[in-house]
Amino acid sequence: QVQLVESGGGLVQAGGSLRLSCAASGRTVSRDTMGWFRQAPGKEREFVAANRWTGTSVYVADYADSVKGRFTTSRDNGKNTLYLQMNSLKPEDTAVYYCATALDYRGSDYYSRSRYTYWGQGTQVTVNS
């Protein structure tokens, strides 16, 4: 059983920054594709970013168009932790942010919620205008 715990959410002014963390336990996630999703009130959960294992020591990051150039995802395998650095935050970024892991997955369907097996409980990010 894999457990994912997000942290780092909070209240920030537009233009500000936050760094989310997702600590994994129960499994080493270095070979997994890990993703960030978010869900705003009344909306479906949407893809934000993915950090994909290529089968080598290289990881590739992918982003939704809405966050490209503002958000950066990275991981620290020594800490079994995934990060999301969010800069230039906008009010429309307000949502609950979730991390998830797709076990041993290296495919191209990383933006699909159904690809991910384990999810964290989420952390609230609120951006005031």
Q: Summarize this, please?
A:
The protein is an all-beta fold and 129 residues long.
Total beta strand runs: 11
Spell the H/E element sequence: EEEEEEEEEEE
pLDDT averaged over residues:
96
Q: Fraction of residues in helices? A: under 10%
Low-confidence stretches: none
Biggest β-sheet strands, sense, barrel:
7 strands, mixed
Radius of gyration from CA coordinates: 14 Å
- Tell me the distance between the termini: 40 Å
Work out the strand percent. over 45%
What's the number of helices?
0
Key attributes of the depicted protein:
single chain, 129 residues, mainly beta, seven-stranded mixed beta sheet, 11 strands, 0% helix
Describe this structure in words.
There is one protein chain. The strands form 2 sheets. Strands 2, 4, 5, 6, 9, 10 and 11 form a 7-stranded mixed sheet that branches. The protein is an all-beta fold and 129 residues long. Strand 7 and strand 8 form a beta hairpin. It has strands spanning 3-7, 10-13, 18-25, 33-39, 46-53, 59-63, 71-76, 81-86, 95-102, 118-119, 123-128. It has no helices and 11 strands. 0% of the residues lie in helices and 50% in strands. It starts with a strand and ends with a strand.
Write the layout of secondary structure elements.
Elements: E1 3-7, E2 10-13, E3 18-25, E4 33-39, E5 46-53, E6 59-63, E7 71-76, E8 81-86, E9 95-102, E10 118-119, E11 123-128
Parallel strand pairs: 2-11
Antiparallel strand pairs: 1-3, 3-8, 4-5, 4-9, 5-6, 7-8, 9-10, 9-11
